[in-house]
Design a protein that fits this description.
Distance between the termini: 13 Å
Order of helices and strands: EHEHHEHEEEHEH
Structural class: alpha/beta
Radius of gyration: 17 Å
Number of strands: 7
CATH topology: Rossmann fold
Oligomer: single chain
Largest sheet: 5 strands, parallel
CATH superfamily: Flavodoxin domain
CATH architecture: 3-Layer(aba) Sandwich
Number of helices: 6
């Protein structure tokens, strides 16, 4: 059975992006049908209208509220359709790019990708896998100043995706060749 991959790139750079290079290689290695989502043209930030629409029961939403949620609904449909989510996440100022944070805000939806239970939130997207390609200029991935990898792993778990691989090309500004070669070795070791 052919798997479906949701391929997300969040780098502001179209050319010369380490994470774009890595995600392309990951998608090629994993193989399958690909849904492509490039966040270069930033997604809108959630606002009061979006929040109000989101908390209105679906069968009671106005046309304007349905319109406010249309993009979010499409993004949720993409992640639900995927077996594997491949995310390219450069680290900007110790965190994820604003465009990736906007995507997260638009897909983390109570009742669609997670549910509130008496035992706390429960992710609804179980059985999926995420492969996250991180590139940093100077931050060592896994260090006390790495706020991106733990956040992304947590968000994936929050929506039910506990099978998460981090491919790290960290400290690129210190030794780009070593960082990229190491990330390629991690990709080679990934199970397809």
């Amino acid at each position: 059975m052919t798997k479906t991959i949701l391929h997300i790139d969040a780098s502001a750079r179209l050319a010369g992006s380490t994470t774009r290079q890595l995600t392309s290689r990951i998608v090629e290695k994993l193989g399958g049908d690909v849904i492509r989502r490039d966040l270069t043209d930033a997604l809108p930030q959630i606002n009061e209208g979006w929040v109000n629409a989101n908390f209105t029961p679906a069968d009671q939403r106005s046309e304007a509220q349905e319109h406010a949620l249309a993009l979010s609904d499409a993004l949720v449909d993409e992640i639900k359709a995927a077996d594997v989510i491949v995310i390219g996440a450069p680290v900007y100022n110790f965190g994820v790019p604003a465009a990736l944070k906007a995507w997260i805000d638009l897909i983390a939806r109570a009742g669609l990708t997670f549910a509130y239970t008496e035992n706390g939130p429960k992710g609804l997207l179980e059985g999926k896998r995420a492969v996250i390609a991180l590139a940093t200029g100077g931050t060592p991935v896994g260090s006390e100043i790495d706020f991106a990898s733990g956040y992304l792993r947590h968000i994936m778990g929050f929506i039910g995706i506990s099978d998460v691989d981090i491919i790290a090309a960290d400290q690129v500004m210190a030794d780009a060749e070593k960082a990229v070669t190491g990330a390629h070795a991690q990709i080679d070791a990934l199970a397809a």
